[in-house]
Design brief:
Blueprint: H1 5-30, H2 39-64, H3 71-100, H4 103-118, H5 123-133, H6 138-164
Helix pairs in contact: 1-2, 1-3, 2-3, 2-6, 3-6, 4-5
Length: 185
């Protein structure tokens, strides 16, 4: 399907991470728990995204690049993995809110309104912002979910890429794996 090994590998891991994110959201949905602003689901999603990026970049480094990866390539791989995963998750949210349960969007609007009121905004300001929120469609909602997952994934990719960056000393044939305590830096 893809000839570029980076895209092929990140598409595979992005698909796996996206599938697991969807599975976690479905478990919460079928238990009648919120899939919008549930702190437990948020923590689970963050753990799954970090794990997916870590394992995907590690496997890409070990199998495709023979154990050596620079920061730019590790960061790019992490972004692509989470980009594909976020696409799948956004498609799931779109189908869920468009065809099965539109109350999820209303729940998000109510949560935002409650947060604005608790933050101390005046009622006229809350009404103005809520008049904009009332026009949220499943497509806009899914796009916002995609964007939030992507931004979170970019931050996680920055950190993961830092730990995977390596420079090979061409005259030393020893392993350069930081996780196996190599001194070849």
């Amino acid at each position: 399907m893809f000839k570029n090994p980076l895209v092929r590998h990140t598409f595979l891991f992005g698909s796996l991470v996206g599938g697991v994110l969807i599975l976690a959201a479905l478990v919460f949905y079928f238990k009648d728990l919120s899939v919008n602003y549930n702190p437990n689901l948020t923590l689970i999603n963050q753990f799954l995204m970090i794990s997916g990026i870590f394992l995907g970049v590690k496997k890409y480094r070990d199998e495709i690049l023979f154990g050596v990866i620079n920061y730019k390539r590790a960061f790019t791989a992490g972004i692509l993995i989470i980009g594909f995963a976020a696409c799948y998750y956004a498609m799931f949210i779109y189908v869920l809110t468009k065809f099965f349960d539109a109350s999820i969007i209303q729940e998000a609007i109510n949560f935002a309104q409650k947060g604005l009121v608790q933050s101390g905004y005046e009622q006229k300001d809350v009404d103005l912002i809520m008049s904009i929120y009332k026009h949220i469609t499943p497509g806009i909602f899914a796009f916002s979910m995609w964007l939030s997952k992507l931004f979170g994934g970019v931050l996680f990719s920055l950190v993961v890429a830092f730990f995977f960056r390596q420079k090979r000393n061409l005259f030393n044939k020893q392993s350069v794996d930081k996780f196996n305590e190599s001194n070849n830096q």
